[in-house]
Amino acid sequence: MSNQTDSREEDIDEMGPVFSKFLFQLSFATTATTIVSGAMAERCNFRAYCLFSLCNTIVYCVPAGWIWGSHGFLHKLGAIDIGGSGAVHLVGGSSAFVAAWMLGPRLGRYDHGREPLPMGSPTNALLGLFMLWWGWLAFSSGSVFGVSGHKWKFSARAAVTTINASFGGGVVGLIYSYIRKKGKFDILDLISAVLGSLVSVTGGCAIYRPWEAIVIGAIGGGLACFGIPFFDWLHIDDPVGATSVHGLSAFWGVLAIGLFADGETLLNLTNGRSGLFKGGDAYLLGVQALAAVSFSLWAGFITFLLLWIINKFIPIRMEAHEELLGADLVEHGIRRSGVGVSRALSALGSHPNFDIEAGSAIGTNPGHEMALEKFLKDKGSLRNGNLNHEPISHITNTSIAWAK
């Protein structure tokens, strides 16, 4: 009887830490997966993505064990990642890069230049930024797992560095946009810069000084802004810039710990080590570099393997006619203005897998418009209002070989 009582008391004592860590890790695993969804948007087969998101859990869980589990080799080496710059964002950003590369660009995306496509809703994009911004405070502050003892001090510090970093990134985004747009401001540059700054400060949020967070955030925001056109130059079509925001900025964020970390002893968050700029040696920076490379290689390779296997059963790329009609309508049956289907409907006519009567929207995607013009020019005229079930992937020179 006594043993049972002791066991129950032990379970109650462990209940809080176990449940809180489970919820935290569940949220982190979800985040690492949803990061990839943005890079696959507008041309990924929804069923294939659902299967990928289920399997993608392994992409996050293994490196999370490396850095946070007592058994992990990075943990034993003394690597630091308090809020997930590496285990969450770098893993997600690396997966996003591979997924975008395997899917290929959206139809007509780079046929006439690399300028960003017009935003569907700047208001919704800003709303999403604010939701992430405030949510980031909870994640960064909560990454010390408590407020007892000295924890509340580091939790408060994490909140301040998070806000300061976003200030640094936001300023860089405004300057970058002002120069790039010749005196005007692009809301996408500001969003990318602020998110990049938040990503970069997350890993060391509780061990930076406030002014250091501004510097780290400014560099992270700059990498996010410059990375987006760089990947477009490589013809890696990432609609939301996940590779830059969550990849490049996170890589910097993991390295920044090796430069700016305060060697505190109250919670032993740094295992007694300091960053290179704080009087420490190069060991911590070397370990952080190893962690960044390990996260990137693991996430990239496993993502490639998962998508390659899934593609054998469910094509990861949508059919060309489905992409032109729009995933909102084809995959989800959403019928509203702005879906982007009316031009596609008039050009494509009927299709055996699509109810043409369901569409009544106005299209605005320039890449799709060019693809449809090319299709109409090559085809000459439709035969009795249908495509005779012929494939239409020839309407653009964009390669979608991974979907075949």
UniProtKB/TrEMBL annotation:
Keyword terms of this UniProt record: Membrane, Transmembrane, Transmembrane helix
Main location: membrane
A Pfam family that the UniProt record links to this protein: Ammonium_transp
Positions of the Ammonium transporter AmtB-like domain: 13-333
UniProt topology in membrane: Multi-pass membrane protein
InterPro entries: Ammonium/urea_transptr (IPR029020), NH4_transpt_AmtB-like_dom (IPR024041)
Entry's localization field: Membrane
Annotated transmembrane regions: 22-41, 48-67, 87-104, 125-148, 154-175, 187-208, 214-233, 245-263, 283-310
Key word Transmembrane present: yes
Name of the molecule in the record: Ammonium transporter AmtB-like domain-containing protein
